[in-house]
Structures are given as structure tokens and as C-alpha cells.
């Protein structure tokens, strides 16, 4: 007979690699874990593990059963959370974004959770491709990405924009492309695209980022200003990254005539309606950012329009 508990035990066993750790995590006895495995193997009619002393590896049937179990519980979680879509103040928020977005959005959502005890937050920091994959699989209800997504099973729409900032060491005295080229570029995932867009809009003689000496790279955007603060080069980041950086006093932003923005997109599974709790959180965050950048009243309204 089908029993979801057996699949849950099997998933935990694969993830921990240990009958003892599985029993401890699920608050079971070790014989109980073994019994669940035997009953699952009897139900499927296939051995799931190849035991090698105290260790084990998955059989081909075991790998397929594990993949199926993950999809099974992802669908279950998606269904369970869909039941409270209409609640403003309760339910789980399962979303993901790149680090550049989450540096400020995640603390904002945690603040809302403190005020609304019925909310729970599962927030993942990931790159665009991973976010899209996880939304498709049902692991996240909502993804925020920095590039538009075209997929028949997904809905993608523009949500918010943040200015890009040209950031240099605090003692940098130059102002032109030649001065920037002299100190070199510090990159990160997506950094070349951001820098190219901002420099192209403000320097008529700009051609390509490949002309700039590459002084370093990090896949964690929140750390890139550490290198700039040490005088190792310049970079271009979203204003959120600059405002939340512990090194913001050791760097400076160069003023430019033509603003360029990073556009953020919301990604959901096609045909689904965004729960009201997400709508309120996203609008609340955008309103906070408008107030922080432009203040209250008419100035904010003009920029909002």
C-alpha cells in the first residue's frame, strides 16, 4: 500500500547517507527506518539500496525512486501552500532571488514576518538559471531574476528597477575611461553586462569591456566592493549592493549624466495567480525603496509615474 511516510524516510536516508542520522532527524528508531525501507522496497518490488558494509549506494531503481519522491513532495507542498493564497497575513512565502536583490529584500520580508506571526519565509539566494529551474519544479512559488525569461510554462513580468552605480576606490581621482582602464575592472556574475551598459551610455568612446584589464572576479556580488575598497579596481553594481555594503565608506560612486537601471523581473508558473501576501510584500518593498531614494510626497509620486 502507498505510504508517503516511507518515501519521506527514504528521502532523508539518501540525504543523510546514514540510518542512524535518519532515525535521529525523524525522531524514529533505527529499526524503524529499516522497516520503512523494506516496506517501500516491497511496495515497489525493487531493491533501492546496494549495501556495502555500513555504507550504501543507490541502485538504478533507488535513483528513480528518489527523483520521484522529490517531485511528489514538491507537488504536495505546492498544493498545501495554494490553499492559503487569499490570506494577507499568513502562509509560507517561498521565493528566490540573486544576492544583489536579496541583500535588502530578505531583511524587509523578515521585518514583515515579525509583524505578522502567521507568515513564514523560505528565501533562497541563487543565480537566474537556478531560480528558473526551481520555480518550474515547484520548489519556489516566486522567482526574482535580473533578465527576462521566455518559457512556455512560466510567466515573466517587469517588477522593479534599481540604478546602477559606477564604484571606485575612495582615493580615485580620475573621471574618464582612460583613468578607469588604468585601475582595471573587478567583475562578478553579471558584472560585465552591467558595466558595459552603464559605460556605453555615458562614455561615447566606450567599445567593449574586454578592453579593460580584469583585476578579479567573485561569484558573490556582496563581496565585490571589498576588492574596490582595497584599491584593486572599479566595478558597477546595483545601488542596493552599494547601500548595504560594509565597505561603502571606503569607496565612492562616480557621478554620471545618463542613469542606467538594473531591471528586475518576477517569474511564476504560467496560469497561476500571485497570492495576496506576495503582492503586499512586493509592493511594500517597492514603496520603501521609493521613500528611501526620493522621500515622501510629490517627488516620490513623480518618480513612481
What does this structure look like?
- Keywords: DNA-binding, Transcription, Transcription regulation.
- Belongs to the LysR transcriptional regulatory family.
- This protein has 305 residues and is an alpha/beta fold.
- It folds into two domains: 4-83, Winged helix-like DNA-binding domain superfamily/Winged helix DNA-binding domain (Arc Repressor Mutant, subunit A), CATH 1.10.10.10; 94-292, 3-Layer(aba) Sandwich (D-Maltodextrin-Binding Protein, domain 2).
- It contains twelve helices and eleven strands.
- Strands 3, 4, 5, 6, 9, 10 and 11 form a seven-stranded mixed sheet that branches.
- The protein starts with a helix and ends with a helix.
Layout of helices and strands, plus pairs?
Elements: H1 4-16, H2 19-25, H3 30-44, E1 49-52, E2 55-58, H4 60-82, E3 90-97, H5 99-115, E4 118-125, H6 128-137, E5 142-145, E6 154-169, H7 177-183, E7 185-188, H8 191-202, E8 214-218, H9 224-229, E9 235-238, H10 239-244, E10 251-253, E11 261-269, H11 276-294, H12 298-304
Parallel strand pairs: 3-4, 3-5, 7-8
Antiparallel strand pairs: 1-2, 5-11, 6-9, 6-10, 6-11
Helix pairs in contact: 1-2, 1-3, 1-4, 2-3, 11-12
Domain HTH lysR-type: 2-59
Keywords: DNA-binding, Transcription, Transcription regulation
GO molecular function, one term: DNA-binding transcription factor activity
Brief description of this entry?
The chain is an alpha/beta fold and 305 residues long. It has 12 helices and 11 strands.
Relevant terms:
7-stranded mixed beta sheet; alpha/beta; 23% strand; 11 strands; 305 residues; two-stranded antiparallel ribbon; D-Maltodextrin-Binding Protein, domain 2
